[in-house]
Amino acid sequence: MKGANFFNIFASSPIKPIQDHMDKVVSCIELLPDFMACTVRKEWQTAEGVHHRILSLESAADDLKRQIRLHLPSSMFMPVNRIDLLELLTMQDKIASKAKHIASLVLGRKMALPDVIIDDYNKFLARAIKAVMKAKKAIHELDELVDTGFRGPEVLRVTKMIQELDDVERETDKLEFKLRNFIFELESGYPALDVIFWYKLIDWTGELADRAQHVGYRLEVLLAQ
């Protein structure tokens, strides 16, 4: 996107590009269940295709992040602080980056989780993605917050969304704890290196929800102003 056109977008809405970026982030992580399903079936060529789509979407999100950083007006022209918006953008971008890292790790090692934990992992992944979706929903209320001057019922509405996001993140933590305990009980029967990377996969999957929660934290900073 050319700089002049991008400036026009900011002139009409300083928030819209941030929301567009979050949409790209969500498009990236939404591919993870399909990707993992391919790996379970050991359809590595198909998994590689999904991996390529994840990389492309993550790259598009990264390009948009760069454009936003270059063209975001100074805070004197906006109803919200420029630094706070950039921090929010960074938190969003880290979600897409982690999705890329997860897919690259699994594909690079042709990682196969034990059949007995696949269902639990899929539930864990779904809950982490749900947290990101909650964050997206809250981000798409940001323009309404600006329009209302961060006052009135809209603030209560977004505050409730952030609380729901926190609840989902805590649920994700519980699933992660359960999954880790399950692997601990199984690990003696598998190669140590495989087990190490299973734990890494679980860590990174949990970070999707953690980073979504941090998006909520950044929104709380905006609300507090």
Topology:
Elements: H1 3-12, H2 16-29, H3 32-40, H4 44-71, H5 82-109, H6 115-139, H7 142-147, H8 153-186, H9 192-224
Helix pairs in contact: 2-4, 2-5, 2-6, 3-4, 3-5, 3-6, 4-5, 5-9, 6-8, 6-9, 8-9
Average of pLDDT: 90
What is the radius of gyration? 19 Å
CATH top-level class: Mainly Alpha
Major sheet characteristics: none
Approximately how much beta-strand content do the residues carry?
under 5%
Helix amount: over 70%
Please provide a written account of the structure.
By secondary structure, this protein is mostly helical. It has a single domain, classed as Phosphate transport system protein phou homolog 2, domain 2 (Methane Monooxygenase Hydroxylase, Chain G, domain 1, Up-down Bundle), CATH 1.20.58. The radius of gyration is 19 Å and the shape is globular. Helix 2 packs parallel to helix 5, helix 2 packs antiparallel against helix 6 and helix 8 runs antiparallel to helix 9. The longest helix has 34 residues. The protein has nine helices and no strands.
